[in-house]
Amino acid sequence: MVRIIDRRFDSKKKSTANRQRFMRRFKRQIRKAVADAIDGRSIRDLESGEEISIPSKDLSEPSFQHGKEGVWEQVFTGNDRFASGDGIDRPMGGGGSGGGGGASNEGESEDDFVFQLSRDEFLDVFFDDLALPNLVRTELAKLTEFKTQRAGFTSDGVPTNINVVRSLRGAIGRRKALGAPLAARVREIDDEIEALEQDTTAHLDEIAALREERSRLLIRIEAIPFIDRFDLRYNNRIRIPKPITQAVMFCVMDVSGSMDEQKKATAKRFFMLLYLFLRRNYEHIDVVFIRHHTIAKEVDEDEFFHSRESGGTVVSSALRLMTDIVRDRYPPGAWNVYGAQASDGDNWDNDSPICCDILDKELLALCRYFAYIEITTGEAQNLWRQYEGLTAHHRNFALQRIESLEDIYPVFRELFKKEPA
Amino acid sequence: MSDTTLASKKLPSGAEWTFEAIGQYHEEIARVAANYKLDTYPVQVEMITSEQMMDAYASVGMPVNYHHWSFGKQFLATEKRYKRGQMGLAYEIVINSDPCIAYLMEENTLTMQALVIAHAAYGHNAFFKGNYLFRTWTSPDAIVDYLIFARNYIAQCEQRHGVDAVEELLDSCHALMNVGVDRYKRPPKLSLLKEQARQSERETYLQRQVNELWRTLPTRTTADTKEEAPRFPPEPQENILYFIEKHAPLLEPWQREIVRIVRKVAQYFFPQRQTQVMNEGWASFWHYTLLNTLYDEGLLADSFMMEFLHSHSSVMYQPNYNDPWYNGINPYALGFAMWQDIKRICESPTDEDREWFPDIAGSNWQETFDFAMRNFKDESFIAQFLSPRLMRAFKLFAVQDDDKKSKLFVSAIHEERGYRELRERLSNQYNLGCREPNIQVWSVDFRGDRSLTLRYQPYNRRPLGKSVEEVMKHLARLWGFAVRLETVEPNGSTTLTYECRTEKRRGDSKEKRARN
Questions:
Q1: Do A84 and B412 touch (CB under 8 A)?
Q2: Is the same domain home to B47 and B85?
Q3: Contacts of B422 in chain A (CB under 8 A)
Q4: Which structural domain range is residue B414 located in?
Q5: Cα gap A350→A352, rounded to integer Å
């Protein structure tokens, strides 16, 4: 007898090791592809993986091979027109027939090597760039958690969930309902028999007939099942998403001439990370985009990242707008307000104290957290110096100067620390 | 026997398989195979998922293997094509081991499972056990153990010396895999226990040998300058990886061991590369014959046969040269047709067959099969057994592509005066010696700059492909000193084709730095 070994359930994902080796090897290309993908994505779109393509020349595994020149002989099938000694024009482009020889058997195409990165792998690369600590990574990558909750009873389910009291209550009701007409008739018969027995004339036959009917009815009543399949009731549990709170996230960005594409890309990652963090804690998140130069304006995401303005910078205009929107649409009693501001630090000199004032007196009191990043490689600007003073009084205010992507995470350190899962 | 008893004996049909049904099929197939005197290793059937099948694919068809990114690449490529439905997974993977392991895939229908059992577990199995190349080059009783040893050893090296160092080394070895086989010498038998026991001994011994070789150099160089320097190696060496393993001056013992592992794996697959047509044809012939015999006995349902024949004929399809999906000669089609043809020549030879195959025409086909299966490889099998009738059936024609002429040239077609030439051409096409460049280790300048020189002997004026530069860089990494490649010109002189200079000192190697 043959031995059939069922291996279907062991060593699932055995290829993961080799897959990881592959990812490790082409980290540079994958990171670039992920960076490109992030630039093209909405900051809320972090639920899917990404298609990565790597030029196949980077992947080639060389070995000694013949070149195309020289003399090649090859045998083909399906001769339909050639006689020995015929000359054939050399096919252009090196198709399947004709020259090429052994080399073309490999069928190695010049296309890029394309493969799918899963959501987790995608986030992993994203987090890598941002130098996120591991604990934070796992926290962020977690999908929405559910908790189960009782939700009444259902008529089908697994035996362990049978609710005995409910089931028996149903059974009693059913027995009563089905037996009621029969029981009524029995009572009627009882009355009739009694009446007949009272009568002096002998009604023996009739009484016997009634008795017989009575016993038949009793048997039918007895035959009603004590409990039936459709009496069964099962406890019902449903899964509901855990946190049912809402947050609003304000993205405030300077779009004056000095903010170039590079700086905007950095800012985008900053916003994405905040979004990821919020998504972990809140069921519903609104995102409001405010861009400003000398005047602030609420815009949609596309315009936020892709349009460019020139001219001066008045940061306070954006903060005022944000305060107004919060007051108007997002009362802090019902919403958790988060602010994220990105700028290259340029501000009109007289404006910086005003900004500080707005934050200090109004906005920070409305916000759960407000983070400011200054994307610059140069000297600290006046806005930075003003803001620095705020950190002393406000624990919900964080600021960071950013030169490269790794600097983003420290802005959130306080935030991540404060909220234990 | 009456019709009713036959009907009741029928094997289960329908698409869904069960372990009992597969067992029943296997029993019947084994019985018929034994009647045909197929000599096989014991069979071990394993049921796996499509993911596991892709995985086995990716690691060159082996159940265990060491980890390397190239296998990950293979897996991703296979997975992508499979998910897009561009390819059905091959319905068979069979391991040349004792017992012979045949994989069945969960998703397949009962008919396909039976087909795979007949094809792989009896067809290929018998070929592995009988063919002289497999008998000489592979050790089926030890291969799985050896691969386990290899995987663990390489994993240990990764821990000790870093993943990068090991990966670099494996990349270099893989580049030289095709020139890492002995074509003529018989390798020693593998055994896990001996392998482990000898491994450490070999490490120290080899290192001592190499040290010895280089230690004595300075004293002699001054004394012997007048004499003609003795050649090293005395004879050109065809197995470059073996040469590296034994003589590369700067490799550390663990690196030599990894070179050895890659070399062993390459050697193990060498016979498969040389017997594709024969082996696939043989297995196809037997699944066809075994299942048809069962059908004649009344054991198989008509629906089973319909599905089987549909699948069989799509695998055996040979497009013509001008079809858009033409991709060379289908080894299944050619091999199957040749074995069928040999059987025909044995059973009902024509006059032409008697003239071409006086030895086998009219002989016992089973004995002829056994002889042919045991003693040939693709190149000699075709040279010996390709009949004119088959060349006509396939309408074969040979085309010569000479880059010095403006046109391609049809050198032979399926006609009386072309048969012999055509057969020779096709046989050559399966000759690894013609298909792969002939490159050998020529000399080591061990009194000078320690450079290693390879020689390329061109065949039909074919130059080396572009990848040669990359391969030579890998070789230089292994050798540690300059490497050169010379091409032998038709007039006997040589020209320097490629040179890769490198001076790696033991002290500055990356691995060392990482450890300090």
A1: yes
A2: yes
A3: 75
A4: 331-434
A5: 6
Report pLDDT for A138: 62
Q: Answer yes or no: do B34 and B112 share one domain.
A: yes
Chain B residues inside the 8 Å CB shell of A66: 436-437, 462-465
- Minimum-distance CB partner of A64 among B45, B403, B468: B468
pLDDT of residue B165: 93
The reply to whether B22 and B99 lie within a common domain is yes
B contacts of A76 (beta carbons < 8 Å): 321, 326, 329, 396-399
Pairwise CB contact (< 8 Å): A88 & B410? yes
pLDDT (tens digit per residue) in B315-336? 888 999 888 888 889 999 999 9
**Is-contact B365 B413, C-beta < 8 A?**
no
Q: Are both B365 and B410 inside the same structural domain?
A: yes
Tell me whether residues A82 and B413 touch, CB distance under 8 A.
yes
Q: Which of A414, B446, B160, A224 is nearest to B152 (CA)?
A: B160
- Domain boundary among the residues B403, B434, B465 is at B434
In this prediction, what percent of chain B has a pLDDT beyond 90? 48
Is A70 in contact with B463 (Cβ distance < 8 A)?
A: yes
pLDDT band at residue B299 using 50, 70 and 90 as cut-offs: very high
Domain count of chain B? 2
State which H helix or E strand residue A399 sits in.
Answer: strand A397-402
Which pLDDT score, from 0 to 100, does residue B369 have? 94
| pLDDT of amino acid A103 | 35
Q: Are residues B356 and B403 in the same domain?
A: yes
Round to whole Å and give the CA distance between B484 and B472. Answer: 8
pTM over 0.90: no
- Residue A131's pLDDT band, with cuts at 50, 70 and 90, is low
Q: How far apart are CA A101 and CA B463, in angstroms?
A: 13
Q: Which pLDDT tens digit goes with each residue over B150-159?
A: 999 999 999 9
Phi-psi region of A78 (alpha: psi -120 to 50; beta: other; left: phi over 0): left
- Residues of chain B with C-beta less than 8 angstroms from the C-beta of A68: 403, 465
Task: Look at residues B434, B449, B466 and tell me which one is the last residue of a structural domain.
Answer: B434
The ipTM assigned to this model is 0.80
Strand partners, B417: none
Of B175, B401, B465, the CB nearest to A66: B465
Question: CB pairs below 8 Å between A and B: how many?
Answer: 272
